[in-house]
Amino acid sequence: DTAVSQTPKYLVTQMGNDKSIKCEQNLGHDTMYWYKQDSKKFLKIMFSYNNKELIINETVPNRFSPKSPDKAHLNLHINSLELGDSAVYFCASSAFPGTRETQYFGPGTRLLVL
Amino acid sequence: DQQVKQNSPSLSVQEGRISILNCDYTNSMFDYFLWYKKYPAEGPTFLISISSIKDKNEDGRFTVFLNKSAKHLSLHIVPSQPGDSAVYFCAAHNFNKFYFGSGTKLNVKP
Known about the structure:
The structure holds two protein chains of two kinds. By secondary structure, chain A is an all-beta fold.
């Protein structure tokens, strides 16, 4: 069983569209994250949720809206997609926030905006 | 303004030899450091970590060294195996966040 899963794995879409990426973890963790891997390959934190509450919200355009229906799921909705949103988006989870807990990553969603 | 840097995008090593991957950071407040390994089309997986109060941590073939005065971290893999071929990310922790480097692609040649 996959510990952290993301759907879809690949997403090709036109500028201006709205899209969602879903993430689920079956590890029983309380904390989930969204990272963006940009063109320079850096992984940068976007959001973090602990038990459905937003705890980290980096400087991200408000076109990006995370939603956590329960602590096992963290979805990312992106409105009005732009070319610069093309990247690989990784979901991750850890047992607790604010600690040095190891994070478990999903396989990534490769988003290409045309 | 990247606080964690991996200046070597790639490294090629012969099987059985030592692989040394390097990482530099700028923030002296980082209190914990990790290395992640990533295969193509997969997410990063945790490899080894070190607290800022230590200068070495060893786990089997993997050893991480921390030089706080130089703000430098390195990962040694001895002996290197072809299955070690992957991208290695260095990460540092501060105030609930992890800051990642851009990765070094290691190729271990049989």
